[in-house]
Amino acid sequence: MAINRRTFLKLLAGAMAGGGLAAVGGYGYVTKIEPEWLVVERVEVPLQGLVEALAGFRIVQLSDFHLYPYTQLDLIQEAVAMANELAPDLIVLTGDYVLETAEAIFELAPALAALNARHGVFAVLGNHDHWTDAAVVRAGLGSVGLPLLDNRGVTLHVGGSQLYLAGVDDCWSGQPDLTVALDGLPAGAPTILLAHEPDFADPFSEYGRVSLQLSGHSHGGQVRLPGIGALVLPPHGQKYDVGLNRAGDMWVYTNRGIGLLSPAVRFNCPPEITELTLVAA
Question: Which residues lie across from 121 on neighbouring strands?
Fold first, then answer.
């Protein structure tokens, strides 16, 4: 069972006080080493009826950058370089670009503009983007030409076949409308949905029109204990808190994110770049 952040901080402080030199070394690991240890997670997503032209289609997902004060620009630039090295077909950004000030987007957006994929780079907003100033974050992304799928979708033409990419506004603090986002869905095309909070996969799966939802938000809990899992999870990121899961007839993948929330530590939960490959079920 997840505990709240205040209890977690008390437990961490107690461990540091009672652990001597080993605790000091552990503290350095969870605050300095693992938070900057970028990991590429490679995941195959089996889809029923996937046509041959889409088999092997690769999507790179980045999420939860939270630029400043805990996450610095150089880590995000490293993540961008690693994502580009994967040479994906598509790159998606699943929200929470800033943490304390929306204006940080004007430093972050030029770094994200360096991302490159065959079929483009697309984004949605997260709750922290709304809690700071969604209009400013939208303007920052727009200033470098990053397309924002704010309750809309695009049809990608891949080898004579079609893949539909939809995105909704933040489900917790925005005005999400999946019906509008799916309005242009071509008949028979598999649909990838970008939605910041993963636990909305349950109502979204009831539409019966989405193949895979890509989310972030939870950070995987930032601290995960073997046999226990995450100690702290946010609202709307508690059921599908990490990795690939089923929500009805739909897949949902939750990325652990790049950046940090307070307490600014990671353990057994490094920052993640996800490479998802579509395969025929």
Answer: 91
Share in percent of the chain as helix, strand, coil (round to 5): 30, 25, 40
Instruction: Compute the mean pLDDT over every residue in the chain, rounded to the nearest whole number.
Output: 92
Strands (E), 75-169: 90-94, 121-124, 152-158, 161-167
Per-residue pLDDT, averaged over 59-73, amounts to 98
Predicted confidence (pLDDT) per residue in 86-131, tens digit: 999 999 999 999 999 999 999 999 999 999 999 999 999 999 999 9
Q: Find where tokens 């809990």 sit.
A: 221
Q: Residue 35: which of 78, 4, 6, 88 has the closest Cα? A: 78
Amino acid at position 144, single letter: V
pLDDT recorded at residue 28: 85
- Scored b (16 or more CB within 10 A) or e, 225-262 reads eeeebbbbbbebbebbbbebbebeebbbbbbbbbbbbe
Domain covering 5-280 assigned CATH 3.60.21.10 in the classification: yes
Both tokens of 144, joined, read: 């470098």
With beta carbons less than 8 A apart as the criterion, state whether 41 and 265 touch.
Answer: no
